[in-house]
Amino acid sequence: MTPADADAYSRSSAAYVHVPFCSSVCPYCDFAVVAGRDDLVDRYIDAVCTEITSSEPWRPLEAIYFGGGTPSHVDPSLLGGVLDTLSLKHGISDEAEVSLEANPEDFDVARATVLRSLGFNRVSFGAQSFDAGVLVALGRRHQAGQIESSLRAAREAGFENVSLDLIYGTPGETTSSWSDTLSRAIDLDPDHISCYALTVESGTPLGRAVRDGAEAPDPDTQADRYESADMVLGAAGHTRYEVSNWSHPGHECRYNLTVWAQGQYEAYGNGSHGYRDGVRFRNIRRIDAYVSAVESDETPRSGNDVVAGWDAEIDRLFVGLRRVVGVAPGPGGTAFLQSESGRRLVDAGVVSLVGGRLTVDRPLLTDEVYRCVLDLEAPHGAPKESTKTAGADIVSMSSDA
Description:
CATH class of the largest domain: Alpha Beta
Radius of gyration: 21 Å
């Protein structure tokens, strides 16, 4: 993907739809999800459709992402109803990418065929690992064989864009186990693979367990796992195009490319985040409160933040530097390169300016780059029209994100 191709997504139109329902909540998950609340499914989907209908009309959508939660946990016909509502309100481009997240244990040929007929053309499976012990540690309900069968089901149903999510660095995972997971993932020939370090979030069962003395993921081990993934996936023909994402050429996730290019995207459902016309917004997180607000003809928004002036420039760097192609420097990049911390990172080989692009060359240190970007002060005379911390609430988190 060329820089021009990546930057073109700043003009794209996308939408995120949050589907919070799960069979069980994984111990590491801190997303806005629920388990054991299937009694709310119909009301929730009705509320999402009402929110869509009540939103401002826009142009045809070029990328739609159903994340969660587990969208595949919900009756496909309900998801199709949401797509129909989006089409009636905004329109959907003929060549649109329409993605959903799925768990391997609830995805078979019959479900895949219905979803494909409804207009979904990309599926992202939460595989996480092919090691039975690691899957148990992560609280996953599927077995390795179900990853293989779900991917075959997707192919049989006509999905031409299939992604696998993997998690590395789980305590108890060995170097051999991670190598085997990568090898088995590659053997299935998915079009896209995402690899994420296991993260300990406060307030989750994993966070509480670590607080009480359980083994935490080791950062050095996770760095080794990441580097091995980059090497192995690259050798197998998967090109890294973002910090945590690899794909065959032409199979990059277009929804995420829109977000990283500072493009605009609507967001619907509880806990979702969107960006339109220079405003980042977020919805009520609790599902009951979200549904009640919509049913009472009240806004489900819990906050709006105007991102303009210097903050918009920092925001552009924050999202764009995730990409391998990086960003055009602009005023923010120039200030970064002239700052003491920026010069230090350049000297250390962490970032570089080559061919008119500012890039992060050591992706494991991206967070350090972010800290330096967020510390940048506006040049004298530059407008600073938002008090919002740049980079916060940027992405309605898909697993590919």
